[in-house]
Specification:
With 134 residues, the chain is an alpha+beta fold. Helices cover 22% and strands 31% of the residues. It has four helices and nine strands, in the order E-E-E-H-E-E-E-E-E-H-H-E-H. The model has no long low-confidence stretch (mean pLDDT 95).
Length: 134
């Protein structure tokens, strides 16, 4: 299970990457895509929509179920990954690269500090595995 060190993570299994210009790129983790199975449809918000941290901004439909995606930080959507509309399987193939979901202009960059570091997220996954859940 890949957990890149340069990202921050939510307990809902989204990752957040601070990019040039203060924009935050958001996607789902390797753990999440693996648990979902093959993603067959992606529902993403419109650019310009605003969401609070923890709020659902879209969903991923897999062969197993439909899963909501939650904002790791609050802000306004500045870009959506249009490639996923034609190739939703990119979420499975490259969750930290071509499978990113949205980019957000954060309303409060301090919210990144509320997320887990890579090490904390790995520990969280170990806890989930020990408990036998997700």
């Amino acid at each position: 299970m890949k957990v890149p060190e340069n990202l921050n993570y939510s307990k809902e299994h989204e990752w957040a990457e601070q990019r040039e210009g203060g924009v935050i790129r958001v996607g789902v983790t390797d753990y999440a895509q693996d648990a979902m199975g093959d993603v067959v449809f992606v529902e993403l918000p419109e650019t310009g929509q605003s969401f609070a941290a923890g709020e659902s901004f879209g969903s991923l439909e897999s062969v197993k179920a439909v899963s909501d995606c939650y904002m790791p930080v609050g802000g306004t959507v500045t870009a959506v990954n249009e490639a996923l509309l034609d190739a939703p399987e990119l979420v499975n193939k490259d969750p930290y690269g071509e499978g990113w979901l949205i980019e957000v202009e954060p309303s409060d960059e301090q919210e990144l500090e509320n997320l887990l570091s890579a090490e904390e997220y790995k520990q969280y996954l170990t806890t989930l595995k020990d408990e036998g859940g997700d």
